[in-house]
Design goal:
By secondary structure, this protein is of the alpha/beta class. It has four domains: 183 residues; 94 residues, Elongation Factor Tu (Ef-tu), domain 3, CATH 2.40.30.10; 113 residues, Rossmann fold; 27 residues. The chain has a six-stranded antiparallel β-sheet, with helices on one face. Strands 9-8-7-10-11 form a five-stranded parallel β-sheet, with helices on both faces. α1 packs antiparallel against α2 and α2 runs antiparallel to α7. The radius of gyration is 26 Å and the shape is elongated.
Length: 444
């Protein structure tokens, strides 16, 4: 499962478009320097599209794919912007412009250096997921500032064409798109479209807290399996956080989200929530429930939330569907009773509960053995990413195609392996320090 093909096409066309004009500019100029300037343009384009994805505007998902997937593209665009900017700065990009060297060009040079160094720091913080989330979130807002510096650098640096030429106007439009997107994401939240809700009911479901929200005005309309960004300003938690809606759509617009104690934010939220608290809801987002026909659902822990909503929308004749629900023990399983009731009503819906403290972890081999042939089936997964990767490897070996494997990826901030590198360096450092202490004791 990956960002939508249309998103890759948009990015590819946007980055290749400057090549239409560059051949006409190469005569009498250094080709390497001109290529360096092209790299700088692609960095600007990547940052602008990345800013666009971050707005979560209507239409972003249609173009770039479900939000949890398009944020992966958002990350890789940031990495490309960093790499392209670094190469642009490393390779000699000095080309005399039509207007000659100006004071603004000198200032633009400095702005570009600041933008490069700032982008380097922020991208490294983003992909180094061992850096605490709250620190990443606070620093990430400045990425737009460095985009502004990069745009200023581009607009006023010496280049072999004018800002009023066709290529100049195209790049100016790209800069404007990025600036508008950044202004939107930086604006106070009251200026962003959201619906007002109020906490109507709280109920403990195993380890999860089910929060029922009633609309205070026009409700949102969602499909089962989608998620929303929810914030609770009255509780001092004004930063929107993604939560999957765990109940089927309600005609009255009521929503239910189920919160598991997965981190500092959710633990604080579970301890502070009470009936009557106001909430702001942005969304809905995602496209998890699009599969049809024979399906296998695999949920681990709080990953049951989209399946609880989807099971509530089942109609006679749909499926057949088998839901594998993995939890430590039955008492900690969220929404188990309602899922058992649905299974009793629908002969095409089978619930398989796996208590890991009793029977051990469910394995991909067991799922494959019970499913028989995977031909024509869709597999949907929601849970820890480590098990997802293991599951996918075995399913792929048994003939499941990537387009039939669907998963929720609530890792809006993802790394590129720096966590493993960090842990390796840390462990080696600790071992070296321990060895040094032992040597000191032996010498003494």
């Amino acid at each position: 499962m990956a960002p939508r093909l249309s998103g890759f096409i948009i990015v590819g066309v946007a980055m290749l478009l400057p090549l239409m004009w560059l051949p006409g500019l190469i005569t009498g100029r250094n080709a390497v320097a001109l290529f360096s300037q092209y790299l700088g343009m692609t960095a600007i384009i990547a940052m602008a599209i990345s800013q666009l994805i971050a707005t979560r505007w209507w239409g972003v998902e249609r173009l770039f794919g479900p939000l949890d997937q398009s944020y992966r593209l958002h990350k890789w665009l940031g990495l490309w912007a960093l790499a392209a900017t670094f190469l642009h700065d490393t390779v000699d990009a000095d080309i005399e412009g039509p207007d000659g060297r100006t004071v603004l060009a000198e200032i633009a040079e400095t702005a570009g250096e600041i933008g490069l160094n700032g982008l380097l720091i922020l991208v490294l913080i983003t992909v180094a997921t061992f850096v605490p989330y709250h620190l990443w979130k606070w620093t990430h807002r400045f990425i737009g500032v460095f985009f502004i510096l990069s745009a200023f650098h581009y607009l006023f640096i010496e280049k072999p064409f004018s800002n009023t030429d066709a290529l100049g106007l195209y790049m100016a439009s790209v800069c404007m798109l990025g600036l508008i997107a950044y202004a939107y994401t930086s604006a106070p939240r009251r200026f962003r479209p959201a619906r007002r809700y109020r906490v109507e009911h709280l109920e403990q479901h195993g380890d999860a807290l089910a929060v029922s929200l009633v609309p205070q005005g026009r409700p949102i309309r969602h499909r089962a399996g989608q998620f929303c960004f929810v914030s609770f300003a009255d509780l001092g938690l004004s930063e929107p956080h993604p939560f999957t809606l765990s109940a089927a759509p309600d005609d009255d617009g009521r929503l239910r989200m189920s919160i598991g104690p997965l981190g500092d934010y959710t633990i604080r939220l579970m301890s502070r929530l009470k009936v009557g608290v106001d909430a702001r809801v942005e969304g809905p987002f995602g496209d998890f429930s699009k599969a049809r026909g024979e399906q296998i659902w695999v949920a681990a822990g709080i990953g049951i939330t989209p399946f609880a909503a989807m099971a509530g929308t089942l109609k006679a004749g749909e499926g057949p569907i088998t839901l594998y629900y993995s939890v430590k023990d039955r008492r900690r399983a969220a929404h188990l009773e309602e899922l058992e009731a649905i299974a009793a009503q629908h002969q095409n819906f089978q619930l398989v509960l796996r208590e890991t403290t009793v029977d051990g972890r469910i394995t991909p081999s067991e799922i494959i053995d019970q499913a028989g042939s995977l031909k024509g089936k869709h597999v949907l997964y929601c849970g820890p990413s480590a098990f997802r990767k293991t599951l996918w490897e075995e399913l792929r070996e048994h003939g499941l195609s990537a387009r039939r494997f669907h998963y929720e990826l609530f890792e809006i901030r993802t790394g590129i392996g720096l966590d493993s590198l960090f842990n390796f360096i840390l462990n080696r450092s600790l071992k070296a320090a321990q060895a040094a202490r032992e040597n000191q004791r032996s010498d003494g």
